[in-house]
Specification:
heterodimer, A: alpha+beta, 2 helices, elongated, B: alpha+beta, 3-stranded antiparallel sheet, 24% helix, 32% strand
Chain lengths: 233, 245
């Protein structure tokens, strides 16, 4: 077991590492401030297992001590981003709850990014070239005049949505009928990153990181005194 | 830590690309038949984060940006009363032959007659199939019908080919407002009947200057936010360096 002094050092260091990880996620969110259908992650920190401290002389318990912190969990915040009209015939947005289904080489994935285009084969595809699926699970055909009716595109309710990159999500799909969202043509859903919230979180995290550094330098100088000044005459 | 720096830097690069596209649009606000550029963003997901988070927490690696074709909106038609000006109403393109022999497609209908009486676009690409004015026929004798047929003094002299592809957003840009078909766009084929020609008019650029300016402001502020993230990451590295005094 480490001595009480060093324990404080490691606890403060774990806090700094957690803030670093948080900053990495914030930087990612800010980089995606313009990505259609992007959903930011909310993260939760937890304490490592608590340790029961007791008085060394009497053995009387003093209380519990956390041994530091880490980012434990990330949850994709699927609250909707702002819709804006583009007037493009192959731009679609889900108004309300639900995701578009896309057939990728790795299986069916879900997205809220409706910046679609036509493929040479006459089907509706994502920017990566994957087929967008209709309510029946079949690829959507482009109609005459290069347009697609919003009702031809399927909306799927998704639980446990998890970001997979390229604005795609994995998750547990519900029945098509359970999705309450409707498809709107000629519009895109903007990124759901809230700039103000994210900037404030970034500054807060920076200061927490700085405070961790102060704790470490303070403990270090205390240790320095213990090493060099105790017993000096 | 450096992952965050790189992620923030990708955000700056992506906004820069968006600003480049918008600058190009604004520069072409008066270019006949010009269609505004579109960009596509997609988030990048990296593997697990470093120490400081559980293994299951996946860090992001920023954003990827790429071209997404062009806006399809119809540009406003303005009347010029020039017999050799044609505007396309609806989807589709005029088929032309580029100087290097490739077949191109353009919406720039500001036509000219060369020394041999052949009709060509303002950038010098001949119509394909070629249309030659018969001897003694001048441009003002020419009637261009909505379906592309040309009459001079009541006699048919040819037809302009109106074509389209299945996936216009995948066309290659050959410059001067001319596009070429490729495997991803599908081959050119005769445009639908809702595509018509209007003689004596030109199609303006479909760039909406107000939209473009608002987008530019958005891109600039998003660029600033990403650069603030870079600065914060840098400050954190500096703080970490200050641990050992």
């Amino acid at each position: 077991m480490t001595s009480p002094m060093e324990r404080g050092l490691y606890i403060a260091a774990s806090g700094m590492l957690a803030e670093q990880a948080r900053q990495d996620l914030i930087a990612h969110d800010l980089a995606n401030a313009s990505t259609p259908g992007y959903k930011p992650d909310r993260v939760a920190s937890t304490s490592f297992g608590d340790l029961l401290l007791s008085d060394t002389a009497s053995g009387r318990p003093i209380g519990a001590l956390g041994l530091g912190t880490q980012i434990d969990r990330q949850v994709t915040d699927t609250s909707p981003g702002p819709l804006h009209d583009t007037g493009e015939p192959l731009d679609f947005a889900v108004q309300g709850d639900g995701f578009f289904a896309v057939r990728t080489s790795a299986g069916v994935r879900y997205t809220r990014d409706g910046q679609f285009s036509a493929s040479a084969g006459g089907t509706l595809v994502t920017a990566a070239g994957d087929d967008v699926l209709g309510p029946g699970g079949a690829p959507v055909r482009i109609g005459a005049g290069g347009t697609v009716a919003p009702s031809a595109i399927g909306v799927v309710a998704l639980t446990n949505a998890r970001r997979q990159g390229d604005t795609l999500f994995t998750g547990t799909p519900g029945a098509t009928a359970t999705a309450t969202g409707t498809v709107r043509g000629g519009a895109l859903e903007g990124s759901a990153v809230d700039p103000v919230h994210t900037m404030v979180e970034m500054l807060g995290s920076l200061r927490t990181f700085e405070a961790g550094q102060r704790v470490i330098t303070t403990i270090d100088s205390t240790l320095g005194k213990a090493a060099n000044q105790v017993g000096a005459v | 830590m450096l992952e965050g720096l790189k992620a923030a830097a990708t955000g700056m690069t992506a906004q820069q690309t968006r600003m480049d596209a918008l600058s190009n649009d604004i520069a072409n606000v008066n270019t006949t038949g010009y269609k505004h550029e579109r960009v596509a963003f997609g988030d990048l997901v990296a593997s697990a984060t470093g120490p400081g988070s559980a293994q299951t927490v996946a860090a992001g690696a920023g954003v990827a940006v790429g071209p997404a074709g062009r806006g399809t909106g119809q540009g406003a038609l303005h009347t010029t009363d020039q017999p050799l000006d044609v505007a396309i109403q609806g989807d589709g393109y005029l088929q032309v032959k580029l100087a290097d022999g490739r077949t191109g497609m353009t919406r720039d209908g500001s036509l000219h007659v060369d020394a041999r009486g052949r009709l060509m676009t303002s950038s010098g690409a001949l119509l394909q199939p070629p249309v030659t004015l018969p001897r003694g026929v001048s441009a003002k004798d020419l009637t261009i019908h909505p379906d592309g047929t040309l009459n001079a003094q009541g006699k048919p002299i040819g037809r302009m080919a109106l074509v389209n592809v299945v996936a216009p957003s995948k066309l290659d840009d050959a410059g001067n407002g001319v596009y070429t078909a490729n495997a991803a766009s599908g081959p050119p084929r005769v445009a639908g009947t809702n595509t018509t020609l209007v003689q004596g008019a030109l199609e303006s650029s479909n760039v909406d200057i107000a939209d473009a300016m608002v987008d530019l402001m958005d891109a600039q502020r998003s660029f600033q936010m990403a650069s603030q993230a870079v600065r914060t990451q840098d400050q954190m590295l500096s703080i970490a360096n200050g641990l050992k005094t």
